[in-house]
Design a protein that fits this description.
Layout lengths: L2 H21 L4 H17 L10 H20 L16 H11 L3 H12 L4 H8 L3 H22 L7 H4 L1
Helix pairs in contact: 1-2, 1-3, 2-3, 5-7, 6-7
Length: 165
């Protein structure tokens, strides 16, 4: 194949090679670069071409092999993309559930009504026939009892700053 014949094939086939690579999913820039490299490699090995009429298909296969080799080499060096879980776990609900299961039934009812249901102290006091101050004290005692139970259930392997000193 002469230089002029190859030049004519390049002018007719370069855009076809770019379109071929684009159809395989390459970006325009990557397709142009790969097509250029394939046509250069085709010129370097033009003595191996058996059928001059199939030069575009031959160069397209060179281009595809160049791109596949590029992918094999760079696949090991792609940065990891941080992905976040789409399902959100409500950790607060898990903590509240754990706290409430450790409470006495009367304390659990008091804490649920005040903190989870948002019932006013006045309403809770009227229902139980006592003052709002008595309800506040009961809620405070229920919270302290729950905190003590949680401290007792906590793993012993954790050393606090105060116990380490």
């Amino acid at each position: 194949m002469t230089r002029d014949e190859f030049g004519g094939a390049y002018r007719r086939g370069f855009d076809l090679t770019v379109r071929f690579l684009r159809s395989k999913g390459l970006s325009l820039d990557a397709a142009v670069e790969t097509a250029q490299a394939a046509w250069v490699k085709g010129w370097e090995h033009s003595d191996q071409l058996r059928d001059v009429g199939s030069i575009v298909a031959w160069v397209n296969s060179i281009a595809w092999n160049l791109y596949r080799n590029f992918l094999r080499q760079t696949a090991h060096f792609q940065p990891l993309v941080e992905r976040f879980a789409t399902g959100q776990v409500n950790l607060a609900a898990i903590d509240v559930s754990r706290i409430l299961t450790s409470c006495k039934p009367a304390d659990r009812s008091m804490l649920e009504q005040h903190h989870l249901e948002g019932r006013p102290l006045r309403e809770m006091a009227e229902e139980r026939g006592c003052s709002e101050t008595a309800i506040r004290i009961r809620i405070l005692r229920a919270r302290r009892a729950a905190a003590n139970r949680l401290r007792q259930c906590a793993p012993r392997s954790h050393v606090t700053a105060s116990s380490a000193a």
